[in-house]
Amino acid sequence: MSPAASDPDGAAAVPAVTVVMAACNAQAYLAEALDSVLGQTLDDFELLLIDDASIDGTPDIVAAYARRDPRIRAIRLPHNAGVANARNLALNMARAPCVAICDDDDVQHPERLAAQLASLRAHPDWVMVGARVRPFGEIAPHAPLAWLPLDGVLARPRILFQALFIDSASMFRRDLARIRGLRYPTANVWEDWVFQALALQAGEIRVLPRILIDYRRHSAQQTSPRRLLAAGQRTRASMRRILEIAGATCGCAELELHHAISPNPFGLVPDRAYLIDHRHDVVSRATAWLESLGRQVVRAGWTTDAAFEAVAAVILRHLHGMLAQVRTEAESRAT
Description:
The protein has helices spanning 30-38, 58-68, 83-93, 112-122, 155-158, 175-178, 191-200, 225-229, 232-245, 252-261, 272-277, 282-299, 305-334; strands spanning 17-23, 45-51, 72-76, 98-103, 107-108, 126-137, 171-173, 204-217. By secondary structure, the protein is α/β, with parallel strands linked by helices. Helix 9 packs across helix 10 and helix 10 crosses helix 12. It is globular. The termini are far apart. It holds the Pfam family Glycos_transf_2. Residues 18-146 form the Glycosyltransferase 2-like domain. This is Glycosyltransferase. It comes from Thiobacillus sedimenti.
């Protein structure tokens, strides 16, 4: 049965997955992104396509695709509300038991929805599942992804330092929104990162070890290197909120240290100036902070000693690598 069809009594069939795509001034890539969604091996889905007040050719593309495929429910916002508000609107409208997030510039592999849905159905304790992505595009070769370990047991300590995966690779149970009231935060934080931390309060999150999305990297997106480095306060605010969720507190100095030592998933050094200024004692500072943070989150029941120690060891190894990098850069500038 087509997902847009009706049952014999005339009631609309409930799809297996609601796909959510917020689009804003996306005319360059939107058609390719939509084709990759509509070409999934799992065709039992609805696509909530939110046009976030685009001023380019996006509305025409949305209208053309909505006429072509009855699985698409298109909504145009009168004013630009931002991706968090657009996704929250879609969560209010979603009908399926599982929700998949797709971006307006990525390319979904044909088996993406089927693989993630099968994983959630096979593991009732999982509330969310991600996947590996393959970067491509104009800046991909210069900004490789640098994720912390994908082991699900380490998800809780890992999220204190880095998001678990890119949000456009996310599929989660709608009950997170319908019953638990989770929404993407609209404050000046990385909404997907905080949303993942909130979801961990409800159950387990896993990252499938398969590449299921081609993740486009270009200079206009929020995660371009230039815009990421300019968003330090947003990152710090996200970290503070996530530490609170995990039952930890930190002062301003500790937050600056936490930000400087946390690996950036896009391979960037978060705060070169901090590492240069504290290059002689940052390792000892980081070690002491990680010991304090570990005690707090274990005492709060967020994670275990063993899991936190495993992630902390990775953080310290990565810190040594960042220090070597900034020292090399400083020496090359001096010569």
